[in-house]
Amino acid sequence: MHSTDTERVADGRATIEDDIPKMEPWLGVLMASFVPTLALFFVPESFRYPLYIVISLLLLASIVMLVRREIQRGRK
Question: What's the Cα-to-Cα distance from 36 to each of 2, 10, 41, 51, rounded to whole Å?
């Protein structure tokens, strides 16, 4: 039987590891979208539209990942 976070804190069973923030996968994908964004300043104009598509797909993927994680978190 698993106890909830509130019960663990109330009973004093929470540990320091519980407070350490973890890297979220969706945040990594979001950060990866900055690489092609920075590349826009240095590439010829013919490469810009494909980079716009890559940036859009990465942003969309990170939003979908965030929404799915929040839905799964709500079920627990």
Answer: 43, 46, 9, 6
Cα separation, 61 vs 59, whole angstroms = 5
DSSP category for residue 19: G
Question: Residue 5: what are its φ and ψ, rounded to 5°?
Answer: -60, -35
Instruction: State the number of CA atoms in the 13 A half-sphere of 71 facing the CB.
Output: 6
Pairwise CA distance, residues 35 & 56, whole Å: 12
pLDDT digits (tens, 9 = 90+) for 5-53: 555 555 555 565 656 777 889 999 999 999 999 999 999 999 999 999 9
